[in-house]
Amino acid sequence: MTIRVLLADDQALLRSAFRVLVDSEPDMEVVGEASDGAEAVRMTKEQRADVVLMDIRMPGTDGLAATRMISADPELADVRVVILTTFEVDDYVVQSLRAGASGFLGKGSEPDELLTAIRTAAGGQALLSPAATTGLIARFLAQEDPDAGDRDPARGERLDSLTVREREVLVQVAGGHSNDEIAERLEVSPLTVKTHVNRAMAKLGARDRAQLVVIAYESGLVRPRVE
What we know:
Keywords: DNA-binding, Phosphoprotein, Transcription, Transcription regulation. Residues 155-220 form the HTH luxR-type domain. By secondary structure, this protein is an alpha/beta fold. Helices cover 51% and strands 12% of the residues. It contains 11 helices and 5 strands; from the N terminus they run βαβαβαβαβααααααα. A 5-stranded parallel sheet has the order 2-1-3-4-5, sandwiched between helices.
């Protein structure tokens, strides 16, 4: 199956470079280019994109707002957004993950990393770099007041619906571990881990593993470590 990719960046030169790279792969094709968030949302619907490479800082509707719109649209439930950022450590990235993005990637990444990120997101694995994404979330959540009003009490309550094993798996996911690593740690099969992850996602209303990580921190199940 060919992965349909939409490029959303206000810099035409970058879009051109990404297009050449993506179109050079036999299993991918660029189906459109957008220069702002509103256009990205519209074209995602029109072109039936599978993955959107979304710049955060764009004029008008920025990438953060566009990600929220895509995530909130039931018709786009299968679309995965990968945030492209100049800053590897940026609170906007955390906000984007909360809004429904599947992960993030620095614009300075190697071509192979970008292509791997697209395939990973399209495959539903979501976390492009588990340890890096987890560390980023932990760093910024650690700077927040634990009693801050932007936390979602409902998410904490929804944790009650998880089984003991699902909670254990969620903690491991938040730690940036892959299914194979979790399976080895908990002495179960990778298929069993995948089942628990999918059930936790369904119960917590998470689109993918990236949102599971955010929920684990926001609910207090996992505490950020400040270095």
